[in-house]
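Title: Prediction job returns without error message
Component: structure pipeline
Severity: low
Priority: P3
Assignee: unassigned

Description:
Job completed but the reporter wants confirmation the result is attached to the right record. Sequence as submitted:
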Amino acid sequence: MLFLDQGIGIVEEAQPFIAMATPLLVACVALLIALRYGLSEVFGKSYLVYGLANFSVFLAEFIYYAYDVIYEIDPYPSVADIFFFAVYPLIIFHIILNFRFFKSKITIKQKAILFAIPLIITLLYSNYSLQEFGEANFDFYYGLIFVAGASITLSLAAFGALVFRGGLLGTVWTLLFFGVLVFTIADVWYYYLEVIGEYHLLHPVNLF
């Protein structure tokens, strides 16, 4: 039991560094792909944007850690949020570049899913947050911006997985969808934790 507790403690302490190292590694790989293919539409431009999105996550995690641990300043809200939010438009741009290149017909069902996902996620977050706050205050609207951004990104990733399913790009889009899904779960979970005041740097949500 002692060994298990020590192992769990090591994992918890390593969480902030894993949260920084993972997006930095992905950013480096994506930028290498972009450099290899130059200004080509998909493997050049879109992976450059994807690399910048992950580098933005790294910067956000690093700044958050510096505020919280090094300077002992409350990092919510902080400059880190600028880089956290930048992830959404960058990933969305990455997905749109792929859509434009691999043109495909869009059905009414797919369009419905595209609009339903962000609407449902945003409404669920709004409902829980308003119950906790009792009013639409700054924290409610601040969290809502990020949850909406994450849910729109998830919607586009799900849309891509549907459009390209069964084809050569099906597996790639499925992986992207599940990656964005985990990231969205983390975002919604994190902002709800901030709402109820239970978030801390070693919380399991960081692994997501």
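Comment from assignee: result matches the submitted record. The chain has two domains: 1-103, 105-200.
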